[in-house]
Amino acid sequence: MSKTILITGAGSGFGALSARALARAGHTVYAALRDTTGRNAPRVADAKAYAAEHRVDLRTVELDVLSQESADTAVATVLAEAGGLDVLVHNAGHMVTGPTEAFTPEELAAVYDTNVLGTQRVNRAALPHLRARQSGLLLWIGSTSSRGGTPPYLAPYFAAKAAMDALAVSYAAELARFGIETTIVVPGAFTSGTNHFATGGHPSEQTMIPAYEERYAGLTDQVARRLAALAPADADVSLVADAIVEVVGTPHGERPFRVHVDPADDGSEEVSRVADRVRAEFLTRIGLADLLTPHREAG
Prior knowledge:
Blueprint: E1 4-7, H1 13-24, E2 28-33, H2 41-54, E3 58-62, H3 68-82, E4 87-90, H4 105-133, E5 136-141, H5 155-176, E6 180-187, H6 196-199, H7 209-215, H8 219-230, H9 238-249, E7 258-261, H10 268-285
Parallel strand pairs: 1-2, 1-4, 2-3, 4-5, 5-6, 6-7
């Protein structure tokens, strides 16, 4: 059954690939990105050309996750044009690399603002509609770094993704009685096919960098090479988009709570399996087992 889907951060990477894959699967997809008439105008044109070439319903909408007004306007646009919203994909994110000490508190807060508070702004815009309908899906794009292997020099990003994961877990229980389902898709380290590292930020404070370079010379390149070596030769970033399409296409109430797409197998799936089991057991022990699955769809 065709659904109306809003994907944040859909100008490139996982977001753009997923938007196209979902559109090919027959859904109406709103690829959300910021500055659609400026810096990202070429990406808007690319999406429009893709929709025409493949005869799919792929649209774009202006959405800056750093602005509540922008989030409200984007969701209102989707509701006005499509008449409803079925799936919200939290994909927008920003990566930074460098020694943790070098980042100012303000720089850490900025990463948190995009990766965590951005989801809250979009939720506050979309959830009133989903709650009123008593149905829907929140699909969060997490990271194996939240519970798996964590190489150095990515701490601000890892910390933000862990916070987003915790937020998603809490939201899942709080939305279940409204019939809203939650799935967390957990990609591992894909060293090609996305531009996370190419567009990632760096600390503005450089005074302590030489001290780290003396002890950790070439660390970033070393990690990238080792991660690439761990992944199978056929580990394509499109696997994440395929997983998202499968989750969206699964009937309501049958979707998995968490899906790992981790070619390097950094241990996250194993740890998450235990953590999610403990969560389920605890909610059951305190008489809240009904929060583990969404209530029936309205109608």
